[in-house]
């Protein structure tokens, strides 16, 4: 799974869990466990490799207790990386050990630096402001964030058919406006 796909999946699960979706929260914790275990294992010396599972659990507990501090407008994996890094530093200090990080592992956990895409995101938001807010949100969820039409419809409390019609009409409006069809 690519870093962007991972970010989108984990961010979507985190947002859904913050909105009260218990199954999304369980999936988020399971996914985080799979990603954090090797991340910690790579950073620990062989003598302390058995501590990786403890660090995973401490990080999951910190994610749980501090989840309300996550800024919904920021990349989730960057926030997670900060939490995991702090847990790792605490562990290193507690056991007075030196971390070992392979040279090829100098990248953050999952998030890529998308600051260059800020202008693109701004342009997309500007374009989407030309349709009603619900339509804009449905388009964003299904076309940009990877949600299914059924998921997006459920979030808005409308039928799947109504969501499809709204998305279709919104895209048609945008195409007419930006393809030179509207004066």
What does this structure look like?
Keywords: DNA-binding, Sigma factor, Transcription, Transcription regulation. Residues 123-174 form the RNA polymerase sigma factor 70 region 4 type domain. By secondary structure, the chain is an all-alpha fold. It folds into two domains: 3-95, Rna Polymerase Sigma Factor, Chain: A, CATH 1.10.1740.10; 115-178, Arc Repressor Mutant, subunit A (Orthogonal Bundle). The chain is 67% helix and 0% strand. The chain contains eight helices and no strands. It has helices spanning 3-18, 22-43, 52-66, 76-95, 118-128, 133-144, 149-156, 160-178. Helix 2 (22-43) runs antiparallel to helix 3, helix 6 (133-144) runs antiparallel to helix 7 (149-156) and helix 7 crosses helix 8 (160-178). The protein is elongated, with a radius of gyration of 20 Å. 22% of the residues are buried. The model has no long low-confidence stretch (mean pLDDT 85).
CATH superfamily of the largest domain: RNA polymerase sigma factor, region 2, helix turn helix motif
**Oligomer designation:** single chain
Secondary-structure element pattern, one letter each: HHHHHHHH
Helix fraction bin:
55-70%
First CA to last CA: what distance?
43 Å
The top-level CATH class of the largest domain is: Mainly Alpha
Q: Average pLDDT across residues?
A: 85
How would you sum up the global shape? Answer: elongated
């Amino acid at each position: 799974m690519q870093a962007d796909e991972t970010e989108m999946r984990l961010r979507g699960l985190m947002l859904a869990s913050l909105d009260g979706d218990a199954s999304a929260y369980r999936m988020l914790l399971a996914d985080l466990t799979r990603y954090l275990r090797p991340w910690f294992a790579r950073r620990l010396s062989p003598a302390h490799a058995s501590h990786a599972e403890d660090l995973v659990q401490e990080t999951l507990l910190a994610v749980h207790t501090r989840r309300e501090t996550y800024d919904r407008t920021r990349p989730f994996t960057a926030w997670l990386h900060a939490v995991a890094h702090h847990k790792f530093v605490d562990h290193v200090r507690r056991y007075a050990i030196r971390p070992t990080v392979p040279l090829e592992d100098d990248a953050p956990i999952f998030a890529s630096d998308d600051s260059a895409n800020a202008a693109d995101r701004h342009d997309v938001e500007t374009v989407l402001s030309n349709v009603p807010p619900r339509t804009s949100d449905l388009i964003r969820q299904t076309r940009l964030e990877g949600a299914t039409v059924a998921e997006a419809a459920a979030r808005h409390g409308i039928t799947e058919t109504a969501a499809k019609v709204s998305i279709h009409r919104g895209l048609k409006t945008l195409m007419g406006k930006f393809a030179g069809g509207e004066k």
